[in-house]
Amino acid sequence: MEIKVIAGNITQVEADAIVVNLFEGVEEIGGATAIVDKALDGAVGLLVKRGEIKGKLGEVGIIHTLGKLPARIVAVAGLGKRQNFDLDKARRVAGDFCRSLRKLNCCKVATILHGAGVGGITPEAASQAITEGSLLGLYTFQKYKKPEYEDIKELLIVEKDEGNPESSSGLEQAVHEGKIMAEATILARDMINEPANYMTPGRMADIAREICEKHNLEFRVFDSQDMESMGMGALLAVARGSNEPPKLITLGYSGDKESKSTIGFLGKGITFDSGGISIKPSEGLSEMKDDMAGGAAAMAAIKAIAQLKPKINVTAVIPATENLPSGTALKPGDIIKALNGKTIEVISTDAEGRLILADALSYAVKEGLSPLIDLATLTGACRIALGTGYSGAFSNNQELMDKVLQVASKAGEKLWQMPMPEEYKEMNKSQIADIKNTGDRYGGAITAALFLSEFVGDVPWVHIDIAGTASSEKESGYIIKGATGVGVKTLVELAKILSTKS
Ligand code: BES
Ligand code: MN
Ligand code: ZN
Predict the structure, then answer these.
(1) Which one of 283, 346, 347, 350 would you pick to mutate in the ligand 1 pocket, going by the greatest count of ligand atoms within 8 A of its CB?
(2) Residue 278 belongs to what domain range?
């Protein structure tokens, strides 16, 4: 879909549909909505008065113009209560009205800038939000099935014509950035939605190579022989049950040649998690193709960063393997040795994410990357604790944590900080090795995070558990069923704010 910014009067735009809006509880309609209402001889006001259009968030009221306007449809997008409105609501609204209008065979849609001016939202921010929300809300994974509806081909963002040509160039830049964000998120979604018979560790490495070639990034991939010589006993142990060769993939962006420091984004890349010998129940097992969502997000974020070019250095590190049972598989009770020399007693082969991340984090520390952010579909316990709306965030450094919370909120990705109590480390103690890979029954997301903390040393680090948020069963706003691409926007925003400080 092409997105353009134009200046003019929305009622006069030649399009299949024009989109105006309404806050919930507003009786006296104003702004562009009032102008459209007038052109329709009061039809909008009437429907509002009758309570057919309420302005609830997610509602899209459809009015047929029957020749009164160049556009065939007027859509009234509900913005919810004014006091609750924020940038992420603007994204959601765009996703909702775009999907509604796609179902009505609209090929060309024109919209006003929803939310600009409300609670300090600038026209630029609103344009970026509409761009992200519309592209992500219209997303479908169409590689294996013809989509149900035709795509919307063109979205016009119509700003009031105030004879100021400079204003629209700012909006165009905002649209450009929104597109980069959305396209990166879509790359992550596409990778995650791919089944495990396609999205193997080797495929992930191929995609990483393509990204690096296209955007001039440094690409590295380590195979099992390299891992052997480096001492990545934990990643190799998980890979042992599978016939697919494991890969440790890195993508390096250098946007600040004067600086020696580089931040690290890590992502869990289990392309299928059967649980291994500690095999999972078969119900819902197909969902475990999503277990590389953290890795996909880290790769996609680097791609967006390469396009936005903040002044900073970033390296993404993705340990990728399958977790399968076989005659050569890792067994419960086995003791393995991670890259940093620590021995791990494997209680459950299904707690494999922390094993591969143990090596990836040790590698990142050894490479001098700092600070470190990892994204991982790590524990079912995190989903139980926070549900599917919030990712869990854990850190050894509150200053870094606060920055991550701040950028996540800007990105519209909900994070909730979880505790890392020293005394819970007791639960990871092994009688016969330095550490074991599962804790007790309770607090599973926390003991998993504490396990990871053993491999980061003193490096400032934030771990984000996305087990609850990486995929969605519902469609709403800019979230569709399947992979969400969560984490991409947060990582990109983090690279941006860390860059401006240096
Ligand atoms: N990939 C899973 C976590 C997961 C569960 C992600 C549900 C998405 C949805 C992870 O590898 C896992 O199996 N974790 C175990 C840990 C346990 C054995 C300590 C879990 O959460 O049950
Ligand atoms: Mn597992
Ligand atoms: Zn897993």
Answers:
(1) 350
(2) 191-501
